[in-house]
Write a structure and sequence with these properties.
Number of domains: 1
Oligomer: single chain
Radius of gyration: 38 Å
Number of helices: 2
Number of strands: 0
Helix content: 55-70%
Order of helices and strands: HH
Strand content: under 5%
Distance between the termini: 103 Å
Amino acid sequence: MINDKFCDLEKRELQDKINTLTADNALLRSNINNDRQTAFINEKFNNVATELAAIKASQPNTVPVQWPQLTAVNTTPYMGGYYGGFGNGFWGNNVSF
């Protein structure tokens, strides 16, 4: 009976050790996987940053312009009237554009 109890105790200790090592193994595998993913993402980000720097370097020089020098011009032709299909004569909705 003492021998059986001792064997049971030894089995429990070995099972605890196996469980601890299994958890450590899973943690290490997870860390390796995260490191690989991080390296992949950093590589892709560096590629995009390099391409962006090349695009930025190829852009022409700009000159600052003060705001009042810009003028907005309406380039839309008059769309009202009887023949355009949008005015008050065609649809009878009393809306002119």
